[in-house]
Amino acid sequence: MAETESHQLQFKRELLKTLPSLRAFAISLTGTYDKADDLVQEAVVRAWSRQESFELGTNMKAWLFTILRNEFYSQMRKRGREISDAEGAYTAQMAVHPNQVGSIDMKDFIAALNKLAEDQREAIVLVCASGFSYEEAANICGCAVGTIKSRINRARGRLQELLGVDGEGDYGPEPHIAAVLRHTVSV
Amino acid sequence: MMNKSNAENSPKRLNGGLPPADVVQDGIALRLRELYSTIENEGIPDNLLHLLEKLDEAERAQTGTQKPEV
């Protein structure tokens, strides 16, 4: 059974490695740390019980995100959509960590993020923050790649509008970082 | 790096969460990334680690009773 054992070990190692980003995604879905931690726990239990069906070498992160997202939406449906007071709750939770997310414009940014439609926030988080490709994000959300792209564009437009910025310039990264990015990233 | 360059055979993108190259890297994308790295760097809460330990123990107990040790 050595093979099984190594499958289990690898499964656990990869699961552990993915947890921080899975948790961050859960926070963006639920709007609070507490609910996010519950959701992550449920997703982990579910993933664990299905570990036989996970093929090593395939994308563990996408697999876990899909499980967590499905879990979240099925709970939402069950609870008849008492969907979060996310606006405010997220910000309030974040305010608990003033040293980490202390800057004024980060608070504004979180508030703006919370005003996005859920599907738009999810898309921009998956691609721009969690690091999935458009295709992976589309698989996770069960929609077309084009849908993900247009949700991201709308999210971006709405954020720019809410923050009163054009995405770069006064609100952007440090000027030298922005300059480096402009050179290294093909837009 | 690898001599095979076809996308299907290359490992899945594990680039530390950086967005795909064709995503515009403006202030919004960077700010979002910054926010999420902050959250990710908070580490894994204890209750979650305990849960994993419990699952692990349960599994060990189960395989111990069902299958002989290798």
Write the layout of secondary structure elements.
The complex is a heterodimer of chains A (187) and B (70).
Chain A: H1 2-30, H2 33-49, H3 60-78, H4 86-95, H5 104-115, H6 118-129, H7 134-141, H8 145-163, H9 175-184
Helix pairs in contact in A: 1-2, 1-3, 2-3, 3-7, 4-5, 5-8, 6-8, 7-8
Chain B: H1 27-40, H2 46-66
Order of helices and strands of chain A: HHHHHHHHH
Name of the CATH homologous superfamily of the largest domain in chain A:
Winged helix-like DNA-binding domain superfamily/Winged helix DNA-binding domain
Number of domains of chain A: 2
The count of strands of chain A amounts to 0
Report the major sheet of chain A. Answer: none
**What is the count of β-strands of chain B?**
0
User: What portion of the residues of chain A fall into strands of 2 or more residues?
Assistant: under 5%
| Residue runs with pLDDT of under 50 for 5 or more positions of chain A | 95-102, 167-187
Instruction: Kindly name the structural category of chain A.
Output: mainly alpha
Number of H/I helices of chain A = 9
Tell me the overall shape of chain B: elongated
Whole-number mean pLDDT of chain A: 80
Q: Approximately what portion of the residues of chain B adopt beta-strand conformation?
A: under 5%
Helical content of chain B, roughly?
A: 40-55%
Helix-strand category of chain B: mainly alpha
Q: Uncertain segments of chain B of ≥5 residues (pLDDT<50)? A: 1-16
Largest sheet geometry of chain B: none
Give a quick rundown of the structure.
Chain A is built from 9 helices and no strands.
What does this structure look like?
Chain A is mainly alpha-helical and 187 residues long. Chain A has two domains: 1-81, Rna Polymerase Sigma Factor, Chain: A, CATH 1.10.1740; 103-187, Arc Repressor Mutant, subunit A. Chain A is 73% helix and 0% strand. Chain A contains nine helices and no strands. The longest helix of chain A has 29 residues, at 2-30. Chain A starts with a helix and ends with a helix. Chain B is an all-alpha fold and 70 residues long. Helix content of chain B is 50%, strand content 0%. Chain B contains two helices and no strands. The two termini of chain B are 38 Å apart. Mean pLDDT of chain B is 70; it is low at 1-16. Classes of the chains: A mainly alpha (187), B mainly alpha (70). The interface between A and B is large, with 61 and 42 residues.
